[in-house]
Amino acid sequence: MKTLETSSIGKAIDRIDGRLKVTGMAKYASEFPVENVVYAQGVTSTIAKGKITSIDVTEAEKQKGVIKVITYKNAEKLKESDEKRPAFTLTSVAPVLQSPEIHYYGQYVACVVAETFEQAQYACRLVKVTYEEDKPDIDLDKNRSKAFKPDDQADYSRGDVDAGMQSSDVTLEATYTTPIEHQHPMELHAAIVSWENGKVKTYASQQILNDAKTAIADTFMISEDNVQIIAAYLGGGFGSKLNVHKHLIMATMASKMIGRPVQITVTRQQMFTNTGMRQFDEQKMRLGANKKGELQALAHHTTSHCATDQMYYEACGNVSKMLYKTPNNAVTHRLIPLNLQVPNSMRAPGEATGSFALESAMDEMAWKLKMDPVEFRIKNDTQRDLGADKPFSSRLLVECLRIGADKFGWSERKMQPRANQNGNWLVGYGVSAASRRAPYRKTSARVIADMRNGEVYATIQMDGTDIGTGSYTIVAQTAAEYLGIPVKNINVELGDSDFPVTPGSGGSWGAASYANGVRVACKNLFSKLKQNAGVAEEDEVALEDLMKSSKVTSYKVVGTAEPSEEYENHSVFSFGANFAEVWVDKDTGMYRIKRMVNVGSAGKILNPKTAYSQIIGGLTMGAGMVIAEQTQVEPHHGNFITRSLADYHVPVNLDLANIDVVFLPEEDKIANEIGVKGIGELGITSVAASIANAIFNATGKRMRDLPITPEKLIEASLEAGV
Amino acid sequence: MRPFKYINATTGEQALQAAEQHERAKYLGGGTNLVDLMKEDVEQPDHLIEIADLEYNSIKENKKGGLTLGAVVSNSDTANHPVIRQKYPLLTMAMLSAATAQIRNMATNGGNLLQRTRCPYFYETSMPCNKREPGSGCGAKKGMNAKHAIFGYSDSCVAVHPSDMCVALAALNAEVEVLQINGKTKMMPFEDFHRLPGAQPEKDTNLDKGELITAIHLPQSIYADHYYYLKIRERSSYAFALLSVAAGLQIKNGIIASAGLAMGGVAHKPWKLTKAEQFLKGKSPSEENFQRAATIAMEDAKPLAENGFKVPMGEKAIVRALNQAYNRKV
Ligand SMILES: Cc1cc2nc3c(=O)[nH]c(=O)nc-3n(C[C@H](O)[C@H](O)[C@H](O)COP(=O)(O)OP(=O)(O)OC[C@H]3O[C@@H](n4cnc5c(N)ncnc54)[C@H](O)[C@@H]3O)c2cc1C
Ligand code: SF4
């Protein structure tokens, strides 16, 4: 009898799909060979507010290869929300080309379908649209009177913040801003759709297939059973591919109207205006502490914007409800409708930006208290989530801070800014705590075990997606672990909405959900086979032996994992700490992030290699928030003046230097049975503040507005007491 | 992109002829700027004349003891040429600070001189822009102009020239060799090559229609020992300069015999700091003189609504570049 092969989980194996990707064999949405395919391109509005008065498509339709131009005049009727400004959800309908109304610059006003991509693109230029233009609402300041409370979860309070502030020895009131940012995954949003006999089949770059299915079905008012989505590989999403955007609906409509499969690719320029963005946030912080450094009050008030026709907000203040112990706490969120596209989730929505404000403010308080910023955070640690009034399932923030400080050499830090100089460089150290909710959601998986040449092979199927994070690999590892067979015998099939339903990839729930879904499916397989073979459930028998003894050559079973009651009774978060050393040129305002040490406690690490990549990616994106990422809006016209990756600056290798990533050994069995927590977003949450805090330590300049560019550093003045 | 025809010229003469025949033809260098602008519908040539196969493809010494850089040699091959690395390291430093290795491999020397501004209004065809569409107005002047000019702009345009290479060429007092439509060659001092916007911002240079750049001439090398290219930008590579300074010093017996100074990112053309150069000549290379030179250089700066930071930044950058140039260990 064979003994069970264990511990595939936790090994730093290479991605099982790595070779496919580097050899170009992995197929992305727009790459599937589909016969008879035609190409669609969106024409976008050149005003931010108003009404189309006429659309002349004659010239465009005359061009060689052009099949059809769709506008609101000849478009299919689609489902629209009854509300004036519906809330954005992952299953929201996405009506397009339904009316002459213009809500933002870059809105689709027509769709050209042609035999080739080039023909479609050229003809787009020839569609002549005239408008009756209104003055758009672009400026947040000028529209403050329109601020509204978006929903019941927007506000929270415990205790009395004003009283807490009054009784504090040291107080701080400061406002932080973070700009509009864009996700810009490497792979452009794209799809190939065919509408045949009332059924929609689409290859589409989507993160969550089951929700996307609902959105497409609802928009076209058809049954979900008639929609199939295939997303075998995605070149990143960062939240922008969570929901269905209008291009996918436009292509589906085109296919329905002309009876041929339609390919659509959103251009990089259109990805600024049509596939979501992180919204601009203005965060007012109020903190009070006694002389011992114990927080007495913490308030976090966020003002942001949404679209005039749809509502979304990232909850920046949520982090302030749970991260530190404070008796008095208040959080609010307000939105101002502007003529800009509806924002959506970008990596760690709320946490990435909220933690910048909170963790900068904590640093400011530490400076005022003349306390070490690490000690100040530790002093205010809490093992209970006071906001949710639940215990944490596990929380190793203090350990992350201590171990990180040690590895980083934090004790070398000088409290006084500008005290550490090296030639033309001012050297600074900064720290920030990181936290990100680690959700876990109901997930199903199918396992098919096959006996071939005396060996067991298994195929795992789920509608989950691999957005570049390594889902294929960790699913294979988990299956190998629970089936007791080698990873090389596992075949993973993801990204088909006909497979068992998962919550998809997003919100840091992918790894925990997928792994547990696979675990249950594998366990079910064993149970069934044992029953068939008449083996007692508790007996340990290898899969091979079980299949042999019961003469089964192929067996298929589905399993579903669900959060436990214990999970519901706890607050489940991943925690971490980031330490940064930054060198700032004393004259030019240029700076370099010399090194970072990041410590994370994120439950059981399924694969240190892919996990490490996730943190590196998060840190890189976080560094981007500080260095340069920002989308600027033209104040008169409402268009984005950053409109390609040549002017929307993401970090380059040289910006980052050395990054040291450490995971604390942990298994959070309350979170889920395998003890896994998400890490996809944890990395980004701590970076911006740690770098801004290091810049303060280097220069004595408190930078409260991201990004921190050379011109802002040159113009900033020294903080009091420096 | 609009449909266009492609012509592969094999001699300079052929190229000129094709340009003369077709009113809206354009020469195609590496295409790294032109093709982008065609995709954006900013440039709308009906013919592209390929010049990669022309004879202007080498780097050789010239009669004046300097170097002649062929117009179709790539930016990479130019920057990394052993003689340039040795005798004109300022040019190497400036060129390698630009774009990315991939873009530099494609980009040609002629094309680099003629790359167009990165003003976002210029790129967005729905916005007003006098450079793209004369008479439509200047969007940047009353809009977003943090990255725009502080010197030499006009009411009709406040854009800056984006090239790094050209800033070094201005400091080095290069000349541009041009094949005219009549088949004759002319030499243009670098300072006269690019122009200020005035009332005609659609014209970036003093080249006449159809004229072909064949080479760039560098005078004898005098700044090989003391040079520095300082580029201030938002990220460490692959970003245009917010502002840049090319500085070359020739030191004889502890005195500055000659200074070559130019700034990028501040004007419609590479901005030669002639007054500061003259001031430094014959002075000792001291921090104090560098500071004085910087003050002189920035005296005429007139910032726009959003780019006031360029004045203090520019002054500090000049001092820093001169210091780095002087202290460079040979
Ligand atoms: C993303 C990005 C980032 C960049 N960053 C930088 C940077 O940081 N610093 C920097 O300096 N540059 C930067 N560049 C610009 C780059 O240096 C230029 O695009 C390049 O030098 C242009 O050369 P080319 O041969 O490709 O020109 P092309 O695009 O082929 O041509 C440009 C123009 O010159 C004309 N032309 C070309 N050759 C001749 C000739 N011999 N005679 C007459 N006319 C001619 C063409 O007709 C065209 O009008 C960047 C470019 C990109 C795309
Ligand atoms: S600055 Fe020049 S290029 Fe920019 S909008 Fe004005 S005219 Fe056009």
From TrEMBL, chain A:
Any GO MF annotation of the entry = oxidoreductase activity
Enumerate the UniProt keywords alphabetically.
Molybdenum, Oxidoreductase
Q: Where is this region: Disordered?
A: 141-160
An example Pfam family from this entry, by short name, is MoCoBD_1
What SMART domains does the record tag this protein with? Ald_Xan_dh_C (SM01008)
UniProt-listed PANTHER family: ALDEHYDE OXIDASE 1-RELATED (PTHR11908:SF132), XANTHINE DEHYDROGENASE (PTHR11908)
What name appears for this protein in its UniProt entry? Answer: Xanthine dehydrogenase family protein molybdopterin-binding subunit
* Species whose genome carries this gene: Fulvivirga sediminis
The uppermost taxa in this organism's lineage are: Bacteria, Pseudomonadati, Bacteroidota, Cytophagia, Cytophagales
Automatic annotation (TrEMBL), chain B:
| Alphabetical UniProt keywords | FAD, Flavoprotein
- All copies of the FAD-binding PCMH-type domain together span 1-223
Q: Name one GO molecular function term.
A: oxidoreductase activity
Q: Which InterPro entries match?
A: CO_DH_flav_C, CO_DH_flav_C_dom_sf, Diverse_Substr_Oxidored, FAD-bd_PCMH, FAD-bd_PCMH-like_sf, FAD-bd_PCMH_sub1, FAD-bd_PCMH_sub2, Mopterin_DH_FAD-bd
Please provide an example of a Pfam family that matches this protein in its UniProt record.
CO_deh_flav_C
Task: Tell me the protein's name.
Answer: Xanthine dehydrogenase family protein subunit M
- Tell me the organism: Fulvivirga sediminis
